[in-house]
Design brief:
Elements (H helix, E strand, L loop, with lengths): L2 H19 L2 E5 L9 H8 L13 E5 L4 H11 L3 H13 L7 E3 L2 H10 L3 E6 L8 E6 L1
Parallel strand pairs: 2-3, 2-4
Antiparallel strand pairs: 1-4, 1-5
Helix pairs in contact: 1-3
């Protein structure tokens, strides 16, 4: 391996580590004033709850598999690896006991969906959150 190749690999690992270390924002519609805990978020994303604590309908949105923010969310909010979650949902789908959250391909798509529907909950890197959404929880 040459020096340039090693330099690129080190830079890539450093970038990945910085994204994984970045704060994540759990976002909801600005009109959604419900207080959330990380346990509430976990229950929603694991299919164990279908409503926010205030009783309103909740629709969790996931980032696509392989995105660094998703891997970080899986570890921080759900305390599981992406592989563990894939196996978890495979079992629930196979037995007819659940459907995983819908996946979207970008942070911008999460923000657009949350901004237009008070029932949707999502997550983005904290630096991507803007005035269209309310940060319900910030995971550092």
């Amino acid at each position: 391996m040459n020096f340039r190749c090693i330099s690129i690999m080190v830079a890539s690992l450093a970038l990945s580590a910085s994204v994984l270390a970045e704060s994540l924002a759990i976002v909801v519609h600005p009109a959604n004033a419900t207080d959330l805990t990380t346990e509430d978020v976990s229950r929603l994303y694991l299919g164990r709850a279908r409503t926010f604590p205030n009783g309103e309908s909740a629709v969790p949105i996931n980032l696509a598999e392989g995105m660094l923010a998703r891997e970080s969310f899986d570890q921080r909010a759900l305390s599981r690896s992406s592989a563990q979650l894939k196996a978890y949902w495979s079992k629930l789908v196979f037995t007819g006991k659940g459907t995983p959250p819908q996946e979207v391909d970008s942070h911008e798509e999460v923000l657009k969906l949350v901004a237009t529907n008070p029932s949707i909950i999502g997550y983005v890197p904290a630096s991507a959150a803007d005035e269209r959404v309310r940060i319900a929880i910030q995971l550092d």
